[in-house]
Specification:
Length: 384
């Protein structure tokens, strides 16, 4: 029972931790690239140079400059030549108001190449109506969040008025509706073609505010981003640096779950050790008789280790079954909100890890009292 509970909870907790991390990453990368390249705000510096004795009063302010990236398509070509980079495309963000009659909602229209955007964000996987690729054939189309569609009571094929911060007003046709289960995204975000976003900001075809970059392994983004900053001359921010609070929370959750699961395993170890240690104490006379009959210390160790491994094997097998049942049940528990169903699934690497650890710790827990039994002196026992 000790091994069963220890192994089942160990597998379940680690599987749940991996599920939370995977669910968070999937939701995260629905709207966030691995690396974002953009024009960083600059703060004004004092005009005073070294060696001047005159005091200079300075009031640091953000230097007003255009947020566009210069020569964006040359930079994109340079990025695409880097073998570490999987995908890169331009993006234009425009603050807008969505209007239907007297109803109005504030949000952001994101302009990008639809095919590349769908490949990076997997938009079609959370689409409920239409197809985001229709933006390629419909220059005056818009792909809106489910919250916008619900509040303005529009659906695919209907028109919606979009007003930008520059006062540009366009009547766009809804080509589809997406739902990420993130209320903030669904209630404010929409996707349009790159040309439409540039038109909303009264800019030309070379106006690009961001370059989105995906690398082959998201974990490599923090090491690649500094290289891109030095090569491109613009700020390249990886997804971990941009979301430090999220990363800190994920790390803390992982530490807590790991600590709890290993604590349960340690309890199982001591339980097995105590059982076998008491067995050695109770069987001391029998051990003495065995040694008097010709059994050596190695034979005695083998007996008790075999007993420990047998307990471990049965406990691990039952623990695997228990973990399988727990995960199966929780997979069908609907939490709602941004998460949906409980984010846990079968991680066979965790099952294999739990099996290996369970057998190893039961071997160790049995080996220590077995060594004690092997050192029993039969003459001393008989004298008592």
């Amino acid at each position: 029972m000790g091994v069963l509970l220890g192994i089942s909870i160990f597998i379940f907790m680690n599987t749940m931790s991996m599920g939370f991390d995977r669910s968070s990453s999937e939701a995260f990368f629905k709207s966030t690239p691995h690396i974002r390249v953009y024009q960083e705000d600059e703060v004004s510096k004092p005009m005073q140079t070294a060696g001047q004795s005159l005091p200079l009063i300075s009031n640091p302010q953000i230097v007003p400059n255009k947020k566009a990236i210069e020569n964006p398509y040359e930079l994109l070509e340079l990025l695409r030549q880097d073998k570490r980079i999987k995908l890169a495309f331009p993006q234009v963000n425009s603050p807008v108001f969505y209007n239907i009659g007297m109803s109005q909602l504030q949000g952001t229209a994101i302009g990008f190449p639809p095919t590349a955007g769908n490949e990076m964000y997997q938009i079609q996987s959370f689409t409920v109506q239409g197809n985001v690729l229709d933006l390629e054939s419909n220059a005056m189309g818009i792909f809106i969040g489910a919250g916008i569609a619900e509040k303005l009571n529009v659906e695919t094929g209907k028109q919606i008025s979009v007003t930008s911060s520059k006062g540009v007003n366009l009547n766009l046709t809804v080509v589809g509706v997406f739902q990420t289960n993130n209320s903030r995204e669904d209630n404010s975000k929409s996707y349009v073609s790159l040309a439409t976003a540039q038109q909303l900001l009264q800019e030309g075809p070379s106006f690009i505010t961001d370059i989105n970059v995906n690398v082959w392994n998201p974990e490599d983004a923090p090491s690649i981003a500094p290289d891109l900053t030095s090569v491109l001359g613009y700020k390249a921010e990886d997804w971990k640096s941009a979301n430090k609070a999220y990363m800190a929370a994920a790390k803390m959750r992982s530490i807590v779950i790991t600590f709890i699961s290993f604590t349960l395993l340690i309890v199982s170890i001591f339980g097995i050790y105590n059982i076998l240690n008491m067995t050695v104490s109770q069987k001391i006379n029998e051990i003495a008789i065995l040694k008097a009959m010709g059994f050596n210390g190695r034979d005695v160790v083998q007996i008790f280790v075999l007993q420990a491994v047998t307990i471990g094997a049965i406990g691990v097998a039952l623990g695997l079954v228990m973990a399988f049942i727990l995960i199966s049940l929780l997979q069908h528990v609907y939490i709602g909100g941004d998460i949906g169903y409980f984010p846990v699934r079968f991680e066979w690497t965790v099952f294999l890890k739990g099996t290996s650890i369970g057998l190893f710790i039961t071997f160790l827990a049995g080996f220590v009292p077995a060594r004690k039994a092997a050192k029993v002196d039969p003459v001393t026992i008989f004298r008592k």
